[in-house]
Amino acid sequence: MKKSVLFGSVAAVVLAASGAMAAEGDTLNEVKTRGVLNCGVNTGLVGFAAPDANGNWSGFDVAFCKALAAAVLGDGEKVKYVPLTGQTRFTALSSGEVDILARNSTWTFQRDTDLKLDFIGVNYYDGQGFMVRKDQRVTSAKELNGASICIQTGTTTELNLADYFKANNMEYRPVNIDSNAEGEQQYLARACDAYTTDVSGLAATRAAFADPENHIILPEIVSKEPLGPAVRHGDNNWGDIARWTLYALVAAEEYGVTSANIDELAKSSGNPEVQRLLGATDELGTMIGLDAAWAVRAIKAGGNYGEIFAKTIGEETPIGLARGLNAQWTQGGLLYAMPFR
Fold first, then answer.
1. What CA–CA distance (Å, rounded) separates 130 from 219?
2. What is the C-alpha to C-alpha distance for residues 253 and 160, in angstroms, rounded to an integer?
3. Which of 27, 113, 248, 276 could form a disulfide with 295 if both were Cys (CB 3.0 to 4.6 A apart)?
4. pLDDT tens, residue by residue, 14-71
5. What's the rounded Cα separation, in Å, for the pair 186 and 172?
6. How far is it, in rounded angstroms, from Cα 107 to Cα 227?
7. What is the 3-state secondary structure (H, E, C) of the chain?
8. 61 and 104 in contact (C-beta within 8 Å)?
9. CA quadruple 84, 88, 90, 91: dihedral positive or negative?
10. How far is residue 9 from each of residues 4, 5, 23, measured CA to CA in Å?
């Protein structure tokens, strides 16, 4: 009995030391030693990160976790998904509980500086909006004076909501919620007149309703919400790996590299940028502690950025989101991968 307690204590110390090592900036070695990527995701947002009945996770943010795991560990399935709320997500990252926060989180000044997070890029340009029931006959957010509004605590939406109503000389009653699941429940129970969060989140929430056609997202976008993965401040090499994995997915779409043609292009592409991206020349992977085929594995794990978008949240899915600002820079959007050279 004492031996079991001793071994349990030793295991606890090892795990604690392991988490401390990751928190102090040696995440690449920690992930390789562990053999699994600990990826922080939403507690459940259809299209972005949600488990099915068998516990299998899928979605836009999940696809990035898989791409990163494939780049680093050679297998996109070597991921442990850690569901995090708006209140727990940053503590989980700072403490080393997760290696990266892929949960839809907004890049802000305070989070970047005071919370000591490093956002590795923007993977979805969004904005805050409002959803109401169609039978309320509300057509504008400016008609919500005096309304009760469901809002998730620990998020940027709280200040945005207060600012918007103050700027328009309106009043509201906040109905505080801890997660999107609770928000959905309270909204459907008519505990609030409107639900506010990022428009992509509203679209995902509505898609899960039994009667999505009876709920409308109002036209006003009241904030800028650049969403993206984050790592710990000072964990520079790990940040580079995560950043360039995201850029690899974006660049692949720009240059027509897909999960279907990537093997052929890795051998035959005449585009120097594609050759460098896919490891045929220059061996960029060695600069970040990976092999030459890291980007190939990342792209093959779920496709390029456009493929991932279309499969998880695009116009042909129940979420139904158009590319909009998230189109490539060559197509009028804001997506722009830094050069692979």
1. 8
2. 33
3. 248
4. 444 445 445 555 899 999 999 999 999 999 999 999 999 999 999 999 999 999 999 9
5. 16
6. 6
7. CHHHHHHHHHHHHHHHHHHHHHHCCCHHHHHHHHCCEEEEEECCECCCEEECCCCCEECHHHHHHHHHHHHHHCCCCCEEEEEECCCCHHHHHHHCCCCEECCCCECCHHHHHCCCEEECCCCEEECEEEEEEHHHCCCCHHHCCCEEEEEECCCCHHHHHHHHHHHCCCCEEEEEECCHHHHHHHHHCCCCCEEEEEHHHHHHHHHCCCCHHHEEECCCCCCCEEECCEEECCCHHHHHHHHHHHHHHHHHHHCCCCCCCHHHHHHHCCCHHHHHHCCCCCCHHHHHCCCCCHHHHHHHHHCCHHHHHHHHCCCCCCCCCCCHHHCEHHHCCCECCCCCC
8. yes
9. negative
10. 8, 6, 21
Rounded CA separation 59/204 (Å): 11
Q: Which two tokens stand for residue 269?
A: 């592409």
DSSP bridge partners of 100: 39
Structural domains in the chain? 27-123+229-331 (3.40.190.10), 126-225 (3.40.190.10)
Q: Whole-model pTM above 0.70?
A: yes
Q: If we measure between CA atoms, which residue out of 111, 105, 121, 128 comes closest to residue 48?
A: 105
Task: State the greatest distance between any 2 C-alpha atoms of the chain, in Å, as a whole number.
Answer: 68
